[in-house]
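Regression check, zinc ion case 254:
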Amino acid sequence: MKIIILGSGTGVPSLQRHSPANWLGVAGRQYLIDCGSGTLLQLERAGLSFRDLDGAFITHVHADHIGDLTPMVHAMRLPGLKREKPFLLYGPPGFSEFFARIVAPVAAPPTSFPFEIHDAPASWEMTGVSIRTLSTPHSERFASRAYRFEHQGRAVVFSGDTDDTPELAAFLTDADLAILECSTLDEAKVPGHLSAGLCGQRAAQAGVRRLLLNHFYPIEGPESQFLQQCRRHYAGPLALATDLMALTVGQDPA
Ligand SMILES: [Zn+2]
Ligand SMILES: [Zn+2]
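Current build output:
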């Protein structure tokens, strides 16, 4: 599996950190996990294109995670787009209805190739990849899901936005790579989000083999504080995500 961080930030405008989006290459397919503002251009900067995507997995519909979803659907209707393979779009419970009410009226789904919209089930298989979801406590208004992708015995987890929850460690168990939201330092913890120390605690508890923190709100002072607070609990390979960072998990070059 190959992962490229397209956006390591939040909804706060930043020239260094775009809004949340990740590219996942697995089993010869290309997917997005979230599609925040700037995703389409970040794909281009990474040498990729929305044209080649096989699907997307939306963690939740907060604006910072879906800012480029409507423009992407619109782009897929452009004349001359040579594409036959289906596009599979998954989101948390209620996502299909959200798409119909909010996205489709201004960006009707393309009709020149199959375009499927699904509320993600708890688990399913897709072209050699096992996918599991976890309901995460984040927003009172919107359902949210973490996603776990397993392929050839390797596992990658994207937390999306989430507060701490006992189920998180179980969901992260033995993950080769966990990409966890790390909105704040511990002393600034806000409801609905993880803080740096909590990320470290859950990753250590779960036996996570490599931990990547992302989704940082701006802080006073150096971002290395996120690492220091996380490191108090987690001893394994650890890094802060940066935009366009690329990671490989297992042998599959995708
Ligand atoms: Zn967010
Ligand atoms: Zn959110």
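Comparison notes: The helical segments are 39-45, 63-66, 69-75, 95-103, 166-172, 196-206, 224-231. The longest helix spans residues 196-206. No diff flagged against the previous build.
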